UniProtKB/TrEMBL annotation, chain A:
Listed Gene3D superfamilies: P-loop containing nucleotide triphosphate hydrolases
Domain named ABC transporter: residues: 4-244
Keyword ATP-binding in record: yes
SUPFAM superfamilies, A to Z: P-loop containing nucleoside triphosphate hydrolases
Keywords in alphabetical order: ATP-binding, Nucleotide-binding, Transport
Protein name: ABC transport system ATP-binding protein
Protein family (similarity comment): Belongs to the ABC transporter superfamily.
Gene Ontology molecular functions: ATP binding
Listed Pfam families: ABC_tran
Automatic annotation (TrEMBL), chain B:
Annotated localization: Cell membrane
Protein keywords: Cell membrane, Membrane, Transmembrane, Transmembrane helix, Transport
Organism classification: Bacteria, Bacillati, Bacillota, Bacilli, Bacillales
Transmembrane parts of this sequence: 21-42, 54-76, 104-132, 152-178, 199-217, 229-252, 284-307, 537-558, 592-614, 626-647
Entry superkingdom: Bacteria
Main location: membrane
Membrane topology: Multi-pass membrane protein
Pfam families noted in UniProt: FtsX (PF02687)
This protein's name: ABC transport system permease protein
Domain ABC3 transporter permease C-terminal: 62-174
The keyword Transmembrane helix is assigned to this record: yes
Length: 255, 660
């Protein structure tokens, strides 16, 4: 089943004090099946964050459309957009975006509280997730009292707790060292294997190697894609590195 | 690296932290302005000349605002520096030595203090003049009250605030010298910790409040009220801060424990936010509460004095015409003839104008100072003894019956008495060498009796007055103040013009300028000046009310704006994970109970407990009508709540527009 479909997406930024325009996305087309784990890679400034923001409804496209389970996101009313974000999407950010005034537990429960979920149900959902992510010992601490890797696992828990249709992650390993990155990616992979659809933006070939499919974007369009298939991790890493090399050398040739 | 480098760096820091510094500077300027205005009133002609009890009250006001300034500036500064910890921590990591950082902080303090002190003084001068002009125009007193100030006051203001800014500098430096850079980098994230021993703080707060309230509730007389008022105010202020700090944390934690309450969107966001900066939150609320109490007391009391002007005039001058006859120390007995002669003269003069005396009252009395010990009145020859503060007034039955319209009879060894504190319950009382069987009567002697501890004794006739005096003179030959004095008051028929003409005639003969041992006062002639004076009190009351209201606006504004900037990032994150605007509004709405209801309710409780002591103070100004006071108190509470509601709404809109 196609979960997410992106058709002819285009985004043009207009600078605030001049008429200068930046075309961040020219035409983007791709779709994601339910249960997939897709990575998006590309050079800095190629439009990855822009794309993710539009899918997250944090930003509007200039033209084109994003369909979730066949229905266009642009048709969601302003009033419903927060509830939609809360219930349908889960977010993981590069800089964690945890709130210092909440304990770890409250940070995780935040989207549920905003949806007015009964206390009993919240607690029932919390425990399995934090146990699974190995952070149950820290739930009464505050974010500044735990390590970066633990923070990101808290963010994952916060994204998972609403049982979203899709998790959107923007460089989730960006602020972590390689061991913590490895650990986080294993967790994401596990979640995916349990059926969760994930769309992740990353710069790291190692992180991307945990997904089943990789989209490369350049100059605001999907340029190339590779599937993992049944390939073992090392072989897949190899293919990723090669693709990245090709991608950047083509870029240089163009200039 | 020279000073020039550091000073330009300091200037740049201030500019680049505009968001933080503009509210900080604005509020410092306003508080300096407030202090300067208040201190200038100490020098004000009206305050100095009109009533001897006014000056100490303004000294009190100035001290309170002074203390308040210290707390407020330290509070806003701690807010500011906390948000800059990361930036300043970076200096350390980039290789600036601690003494260099201190230098930068020094120049920052110099710039901000010079700017705010200068602007505060100029603003105070302009505002004071303008506002006095406006109030003079509105109240229309017979003589304008002039705003004045002196170089001494300017100097005191500059000195005080330089000292306060000096303390902020030391505080800021200590924040950076004793902390490691990593901690500083994290400084902004960490929430405030609950103060140690908050239970003890809570108990202490109750002790202070009970002590302050206790002084007010048990205050025996107005003179005591003036001296103890300051202590009571101070105790209640300290108690309020402690109560808010310990109490609010206590309640917030309890709310957080209750899952059904805590895990609802509005409460979730606001409770956790308040706990995150619990001390700051508490100090801010306590500030608002104290200012609110001051507004309510200042305005409601002066309003009472103003509304009650006619009544106080009548208390002070019970009759249209009043005459006090001062006795002769050398020839005490002379009064017994002068008293009757004078009443005849009055009668004749009135009749000569074709008018009649419609009502009158007259009595002779002897005054003794001393104290009641057991069932004896112990005489004090110097009348300055603190141990024996009782004022004893002895008057003959004849005059008492005439004055009250009653017809008591007394045996030769019997007397009637009234005691202002109602403490005397014996059935016998020894005065001089004579012991009387005594019976208590109600206060027929005027409200003035209750100003200080006093006793009135009615003896069978005027010869007893002389006998008692003789006895005391024998016991204390040094005594030189014993006389028999008298009061005569009367109303007449006739039109206002006729009455005025008559009053002027009496005034010429017996008035203050005429000299002699009889002093005449006309209510009619005093009225204008009386209203002028009471209008002056109202003027000051409104002025103070306005001053404190500005303070309230300031704090509320500062609290909302600085918290808004503090919370902005959090709300942005929460919006990303699905917080909608309605919930933001809901969370700002659930502040109402805290920001609006709590300070007003506690301020009202303060004012209710201040009632007894304020009532005693009002007695000094001749106000005896409690209904007027209660009504104006309720009116002012409602009016202030309404004004504060507007302030609250406007500032919480500002907060909302910052975070959304
Ligand atoms: N708010 C904006 N206004 C104008 N231009 C923008 C804005 N946001 C992004 N851009 C531009 O759009 C282009 C794509 O930016 P985007 O943030 O999507 O890149 P990215 O692929 O996420 O890069 P990185 O890997 O560095 O995060 C860039 O050229 C960027 O300068
Ligand atoms: Mg990006």
């Amino acid at each position: 089943m196609t979960l997410l479909e992106i058709k002819n997406l285009k985004k043009v930024y207009t600078a605030r004090f001049s008429n200068q325009q930046t075309e961040a996305l020219t035409t983007v087309n791709f779709s994601i099946e339910a249960g997939e784990f897709v990575s998006i890679m590309g050079e800095s400034g190629s439009g990855k964050t822009t794309l993710l923001n539009i899918i997250s409804t944090l930003d509007d496209a200039t033209s084109g459309e994003v369909f979730l389970e066949g229905s266009p996101l642009s048709k969601i009313k302003d009033k419903e957009i927060s509830a939609f974000r809360r219930n349908t999407l889960g977010f993981i950010f590069q800089d964690f975006n945890l709130l210092d005034n909440f304990t770890i537990k409250d940070n995780i429960l935040l989207p549920l509280v905003l949806s007015k979920t009964p206390v009993k149900e919240m607690e029932e959902r919390l425990m399995p997730i934090v146990k699974n992510l190995g952070i149950e010992a820290h739930i009464d601490k505050f974010p500044y009292e735990v390590s970066g890797g633990q923070k990101q696992r808290v963010a994952v828990a916060r994204a998972l707790i609403t049982q979203p249709k899709i998790i959107l992650a923007d460089e989730p390993t960006g602020a972590l060292d390689s061991k913590a990155s490895q650990n986080l990616m294993e967790i994401l992979k596990g979640i995916n294997e349990a059926g969760q659809t994930i769309l992740m933006v990353t710069h790291s070939a190692q992180a991307a190697s945990f997904s089943n499919r990789i989209l490369f974007i350049r100059d605001g369009a999907v340029y190339h894609e590779i599937y993992r298939g049944d390939a073992p991790a090392e072989q897949f890493m190899d293919r990723i590195s090669k693709s990245l090399k090709v991608l950047s050398s083509r870029g240089e040739q163009d200039e | 690296m020279n000073n020039r480098f550091f000073s330009s760096l300091a200037l740049r820091n201030i500019k680049s932290n505009k968001q933080l510094y503009i509210p900080y500077l604005l509020s410092s300027i306003t508080i300096i302005m407030m202090f300067y205005l208040m201190a200038s009133l100490l020098d004000n002609e009206f305050v100095q000349e009109r009533s001897s009890s006014l000056s100490p009250l303004f000294v009190l006001g100035t001290v309170v605002i002074g203390i308040f300034s210290v707390i407020f500036i330290l509070y806003t500064n701690s807010f500011l520096i906390k948000r800059r910890k990361k930036e300043i921590g970076l200096y350390g990591i980039l290789g600036l030595e601690k003494k260099h950082v201190a230098k930068i902080l020094f120049f920052e303090t110099v710039f901000t203090s010079i700017l705010s002190i200068a602007a505060g003084l100029v603003g105070g001068l302009i505002f004071g003049r303008l506002f006095f002009m406006l109030l003079n125009y509105m109240v229309r007193l017979p003589v304008d009250i002039i705003y004045s100030t002196s170089s001494l006051i300017v100097l005191a203001t500059v000195g005080l605030f330089l000292a306060i800014f000096g303390i902020t500098f030391l505080y800021n430096v200590s924040q950076f010298t004793f902390a490691n850079p990593i901690k500083l980098l994290k400084g902004k994230q960490e929430g405030e910790k609950e103060p140690k021993g908050s239970i003890i703080l809570f108990i202490l707060s109750l002790v202070f409040l009970a002590w302050g309230y206790g002084i007010s509730v048990t205050i025996p007389d107005p003179l005591e009220a003036i001296t103890k008022f300051f202590l009571a105010v101070l105790l209640v202020i300290i108690g309020t801060y402690l109560l808010f700090i310990s109490g609010s944390i206590f309640i917030l934690k309890a709310l957080k424990k209750n899952k059904q309450i805590y895990y609802r969107p509005g409460a979730f966001i606001s409770i956790s936010g308040m706990l995150y900066r619990m001390k700051q939150n508490a100090v801010g609320l306590a500030n608002i509460c104290i200012l609110a109490s001051m507004v309510i007391i200042a305005v409601s009391t002066t309003l009472t004095i103003f509304i009650g002007a006619e009544e106080t005039l009548e208390n002070r001058f019970p009759y249209e015409n009043n005459m006090t006859l001062f006795g002769d120390v050398e020839d005490v007995e002379e009064m017994n003839t002068r008293f009757f002669e004078l009443q005849d003269r009055v009668q004749n003069t009135v009749n000569a104008e074709g008018l009649e005396v419609t009502e009158s009252e007259s009595y002779r009395y002897a005054t003794f100072f001393g104290g009641v010990q057991g069932n004896e009145f112990v005489f004090d020859e110097s009348y300055a003894d603190q141990e024996n503060p009782t004022v004893l007034m002895v008057l003959p039955l004849e005059d008492f019956n005439g004055m009250t319209g009653k017809s008591y009879t007394l045996d030769d060894d019997a007397a009637l008495y009234y005691h202002s504190t109602n403490a005397y319950t014996d059935s016998e009382l020894t005065l001089g060498n004579k012991t009387y069987r005594v019976a208590e009567v109600a206060n027929e002697f005027g409200e003035d009796m209750d100003l200080v501890e006093s006793m009135a004794i009615v003896v069978p006739d005027a010869s007893h007055l002389l006998e008692i005096q003789e006895d005391f003179k024998e016991q204390y030959p040094e005594t030189n103040y014993l006389t028999i004095d008298a009061e005569v008051g009367w109303n007449t028929s006739g039109t206002e013009e006729q009455k005025e003409a008559l009053a002027k005639q009496f005034n010429g003969e017996y008035g203050l300028g005429a000299g002699g041992s009889n002093l005449y006062d006309s209510r009619l002639l005093q009225r204008e000046e009386w209203y002028g004076m009471n209008g002056g009190f109202l003027f000051l009351g409104i002025f103070l009310g306005l001053l404190f209201t500005i303070g309230t606006v300031l704090i509320t504004y500062f609290k909302q704006v600085s918290e808004g900037f503090d919370d902005r990032e959090k709300f942005q994150i929460m919006q990303k994970v699905g917080l909608d605007r309605e919930t933001i509004q809901e969370s700002t709405r659930s502040q109402i109970v805290w920001m609006f209801v709590l300070p007003i309710v506690i301020a009202t409780i303060h004012v209710i407990f201040a009632y007894p002591i304020v009532r005693k103070l009002l007695l000094i100004f001749g106000v005896t009508n409690e209904t007027t006071w209660l009504l104006s108190f309720v009116g002012v509470v409602i009016a202030f709540a309404a004004i504060y509601w507007v302030i609250y709404r406007l500032t919480s809109k500002t907060y909302y527009s910052i975070v959304k």
